[in-house]
Amino acid sequence: MARYTGSVCKLCRREGEELFLKGERCYTPKCAFDKRPYAPGQHGRTSQARQGRTSDYSRQLRAKQKARRTYGVLEKQFRRYFSVAVKKRGLTGLNLLQTLEMRLDNVIYRMGLAENRRQARQMVTHGHFIVNDHKSDIASMLLEPGDVISVRKQSRENGLFKDLADKAEKKNCALWIERDLKTFTGRVLRYPERGEIDGNLDEQLIVEYYSR
At residue 34, does pLDDT exceed 60? Predict the structure, then answer.
């Protein structure tokens, strides 16, 4: 399974803003973006200082890269999600974001069971979750309203999950998901509305990028 294995802090620095890819660490003084808020590489500082008016293509590319990196998706898979969004009824941009939100790793993150999407993906690939009574280790699995996610009974004895309920209680659960921390289960109620998805993503620029 192909995935990005480099430093996620470099991704934030490249986009010029915090994408909160490391969860709570991004809110502490240890955040690398706060220490070096410029693009990585030898010419990171100088390239930022020389930036002038950005082209339409540059803005479209950055919007696409930001969304792709936020959800931890590689280019080929992201393009496939866009193709699916185009075929659906409604706004293509919203369809794309909703598709990304319905990934299994993202739903687990939105339930508050993981610090970030990267950790959620690792938890899924290690086989800790059951979807509709079937074990699933595919982080990119797309869920539908009505699907039920739960932590395997064997995994609940794992040290990772012993204090999971207490940690998750402090985190907000997405309004389009219903969770029960006593039984370690959650259910997708509906597709998220645009206001319930990250506001720093510009889906219209992404549509323009792929419509060139």
Answer: no
pLDDT above 90 for 36: no
Long-range pairs for 71-77: beta carbons < 8 A, 24 or more residues apart = 71/100, 71/103, 71/106, 71/117, 72/3, 72/4, 72/21, 72/105, 72/117, 72/118, 72/121, 73/100, 73/140, 74/2, 74/3, 74/4, 77/140
Q: Where are the alpha helices (DSSP H) in the chain?
A: 8-15, 32-35, 44-49, 56-71, 75-87, 92-101, 104-110, 117-125, 159-162, 164-169, 203-210
- Are 108 and 181 members of one domain? yes
Residue range(s) defining the domain that contains residue 72: 55-102+198-212
Domain assignment present for residue 193? The answer is: no
pLDDT band for position 49 (cuts 50, 70, 90): very low
Compute the residue count for the chain.
Answer: 212
Domain with residue 203: its CATH number is 1.10.1050.10
DSSP 177: E
Q: What is the pLDDT of residues 6-17, one digit of tens each?
A: 565 566 555 566
Region 28-43: mean pLDDT is 58
Kindly report whether the global pTM for this prediction surpasses the value 0.70: yes
Count the domains in the chain: 3
